[in-house]
Amino acid sequence: MAAAEHAAAASGADALDAYPLMVGKQDNTTLTGNLLAHVWARPDKGWLLSFMIALSGSGALVLAITVTLVEGIGAWGNNIPVGWAFDITNFVWWIGIGHAGTLISAILFLFQQRWRTAINRFSEAMTIFAVMCAGLFPLLHTGRPWFAYFMFPYPSTLEMWPQFKSPLIWDVFAVSTYFTVSVLFWYLGLIPDLASLRDASKSPIQRKLYGIFALGWRGSGRHWHNYKVGYLLLAGLSTPLVVSVHTIVSFDFAVSLIPGWHTTIFPPYFVAGAVFSGFAMVMSWMVPARHFLGLKHVITMRHLENMNKIILATGMLVSYGYLMEHFIAWYSGNQFEWFVFFNRATGPYKGVYYLMLFCNVLVPQLFWFKYFRTSIPWMFIASIFVNIGMWCERFVIIVTSLHRDFLPAAWDMYYPTWVDITLFLGTIGFFSTCFLLFLKFIPAVAVSEVKELNEELQHRPAPVTVVTGA
Amino acid sequence: MEHAAEHHGHAAPVGKTYVLARFETGEALVDACYKVREKGFESIDTHSPYPLHGGDEALGLGRSRVPRIALAGGLAGMFGGYLMMVYMNAWNWPINVGGRPPHAPPSFIPITFETTVLLCSLSIFFGLLVLMRLPQPYHAAFELEQFRSAVNDGFWLSVALPPGSDGKDAAALASQLGAKEVSTVKESVE
Amino acid sequence: MVEVGPTTITQDRLKPGGKTFSIAVGVGVVGLLLTAVGYAVGGADRPSILAGYLVAFAYWLGIAIAASIWNAIFHAAAARWMTVFRRVFESMGAAIPIFILLFLPIALGMPVLFPWVNPSNRMSHEQLHLLQHKALWLNVPGFLLRAAVYFAIWVVVNQLLRGWSLRQDREGGLEPTRRMRRYGSGALPFLGLSITFAAFDWLMSVDPFWFSTIFGAYYFTGSFLSCIALLTVITVLTRHEQRLFGGLVTRHHTHNLGKLMLAFTAFWTYIAFSQFMLIWIANIPEEASWYVVRMKGGWQSVGIFLIVTHFIIPFFTLLSRGLKFNPRGLAFVAVWILVVHWVDLNWLVFPALHPEGFYFHWTAITSMLGVGGFAIAFARWRAAGHFTLPVKDPYLADSLRYQQA
């Protein structure tokens, strides 16, 4: 037996991971200190200024909602044939942004990706605020949102039930389930950290307030026993849930007969696009937040690079979706289907179409290169482009398919009004308001999970020696 | 070192008494847990900022009941959701939509899925609260100010004392096992 | 429960020949001979016999490509836990070259198999018009050229990844890992597109009038699932071989395989449901005709059989945690999945040839055995003389000591 011996030293492999998951030597005490620091600190000028801008955005939202309610949907640019326009574009865009949060917290948790712990809380919060913004649009689009409860199955005096064969009712169930489960999952994860805030606080008022939300959590082993299982199960449920939500959003379009909408790739393609835009949005917020909140030691370049890799991967999936749509539109030999794609590239909205291709297909290609994956300015710029590109994608799908479908006599153009634009910008303001408040009052990082990760990082596996036999 | 935290001299006799002992690391706490149980103390608990590696076994806890609760919730959501739609759209008030049958399984599946997930999640969340007996605004352990490190950086062992015990034996055992601080707290009953 | 792997392990190279190889060659030769005999005396059944062969070809090749894709994905994700399985993926992918040979019957049988090669005069005017439009894609030289490109991609990707992996066995070091990560990530777009268009060319164009943008995803999801199922079977069969990879696989690894099968069973259902529901609810004649055929008579029974056996049974069995920790039980489910995936591919292809109702020819089974025998024998032959796990991989320790949180 010619035996060659060698040891596969585990430590050597770390050379492949250029960036650590955690910078510097940390322990539970220092982590409690520096992860909660930004909650105790008085808001600085930068935060106050951003908050003021965000708040005025929320003000604009209130104004636009008021105009919509007083004047009706006529205040928007929607018409026949373009019955869906900015409203549904914004709805799909916001819902998509929410998906990154669930993906990070649930799917990466199931895959035991340890880098997720530093960014999950942050992105889960994003999910909740994004779904709130998303829900607003279909609600307003019903025209009389005060009758929105008609959509729920309840024994009314009208003796009417919802029509369950409509994807719009599926949406009501999907979005409300998604919102509920996201809130539960987020809150469940937050309980240990709220207790941490309660017990690290200096003032009695803070102790009372955080104490109420911490529900009396005291890190009991008997609690952790059930908690771990419950958290894992909720993560397991959230994973198919997040897929189902954007799938059902895609059904809103795909069950119809409209060319450019009815295609079978829509469900997975929409889910990939949702994750793509969501990660971009997380990136757009995380780059400044880790800087201003002093979190660079737990949200390291490793996290950012991994996120950029996911942006690249999902960007490629979205491009795959585009390719399938275009190829089959031609292959099918269906002239209406083909015309839609031809019209997208050459019609009046071609600018939006090319912007979409640039942002969603070309820009992510940067991330094939390590230089761009690890350059803070580039990843920030690219993430903004992806956000824009994914908004354009929804606009292209919705408006260009509707404005010229089967009968040329029924064709028309769509132009947004100031109310449309203000509503959209207003939701960005509202989202930012909520998010800034979150960053002020709740730890941006899952403290308990990061401590657990820190503990795990202390234990490297012992090396294995391989003796090679015959 | 051992000192009693007697905040309420007039404490009624029904209040529970706990011995609380802080250990330096999670491993030390897990080891202590096994040894304290060997000595016959059954009503014990650990308190730590994150779940301890091997903590469940140290406390002698079996399989969690949460998966069964989740399964029950999920099944209720699945059948409840589907039957609701069948009742409303196919039986109580059949509507013809584009010539599709009143009972149209493919179009009932998305909502069935959503109600399954919704009820399953709700049952997990509220099931957890029930199993953990939370919210619990007051617990005797909070009488001890130092115990507040349990959710930040301390690893605490708590032993609930049987009626009549003064806890001297448990406290001595904890110190002997390497606890850095040991205290006895009494539940305040007002 | 702490399971620490051994600190010193002994690994042998896989010996050439052996029982697996002999049986596989035997089954392969007998299977293909019987199929050829069946074809010779087949008469009017010839198109169906060839279609059965096409299904067998797509089935086994799909698994081999899926293995390459899994390997590339794990490299791109820098996953550590699967290091112990990596050589198996590489060896499955190493079977791809034999399929170039096995492709010959399909290339020669094109006029019999694909209606678009010689449009018959029984087709309607509109259908002929459509085929004229599609001729830009669906033509014989294009079809063969594309097949050559697909094979080139698959062979090159597998050679690259496997080559560097074997090189690491000899030389050690981190450079091979760095390379494999780079090539693995870069290969993914090529692999994804080639398997998609291969599915369009070889399976979807059996009914040249029907189209579905999700069809590529449908084919590779099934192949992915079967690939993990096959890996599970191999792992469980070799779990007592202390000096091969199987002996080092822990229950944590097999638990993960169970979870992957569960996830991809769900994902297959998701893709299948999306395609079916969208076409059913829109009810446009040009697409719905495909399902109309499959929702009548015998084909409907097969469809219902698939819902039950490809989704309900594996999904709800795999939900059980106990089963995922039980190697024999898991292997049983894996074999089950491998069988129903074959039924699934038959259900995709055969109704196009026999819209009137259920059809089965015994050569479908001999083709499966023949192609499978040759593929397995070839992979086993190429794996011989090498270790069954990457012995000098820098993450081997992480993989062997892998534990779930």
Q: What is the helix fraction of residues of chain A, given as a range?
A: 55-70%
Low-confidence stretches of chain B: 1-12
The count of DSSP E runs of length 2 or more, i.e. the number of strands of chain B, is: 5
Give the domain tally of chain A: 1
| Silhouette of chain B | elongated
User: What is the chains' assembly state?
Assistant: heterotrimer
Low-pLDDT segments of chain A:
1-11
Number of domains of chain B: 2
Secondary-structure arrangement, i.e. CATH architecture of chain A: Up-down Bundle
N-to-C order of helices and strands of chain A: EHHHHHHHHHHHHHHHHE
For the residues shown, what is the average pLDDT of chain B? 87
> Largest interface, with Cβ-Cβ < 8 Å?
A-B, 62 and 67 residues
CATH superfamily of chain A: Formate dehydrogenase/DMSO reductase domain
- What structural class should be given to the helix and strand makeup of chain B? alpha+beta
What composes the largest sheet of chain B?
5 strands, mixed
Overview of the structural elements:
The complex is a heterotrimer of chains A (470), B (190) and C (405). Helices cover 68% and strands 2% of the residues of chain A. Chain A is an all-alpha fold. Chain A has a single domain (18-458), classed as Formate dehydrogenase/DMSO reductase domain (Formate dehydrogenase/DMSO reductase fold, Up-down Bundle), CATH 1.20.1630.10. The longest helix of chain A is centred in the middle third of the chain and has 34 residues, at 167-200. Chain B has a five-stranded mixed beta sheet with strand order 1-5-2-4-3, with helices on one face. Chain B has two domains: 14-48 and 154-190, UreE, C-terminal domain (Alpha-Beta Plaits), CATH 3.30.70; 66-131, no CATH class. Chain C has 405 residues and is mainly alpha-helical. Chain C is built from 17 helices and one strand. The longest helix of chain C is centred in the middle third of the chain and has 32 residues, at 140-171. Chains A and B meet through helix 2, helix 6, helix 8 and helix 16 of A and strand 3, helix 2, helix 3 and helix 4 of B. Strand 2 (464-468) of chain A pairs parallel with strand 1 (8-11) of chain C, so a sheet runs across the interface.
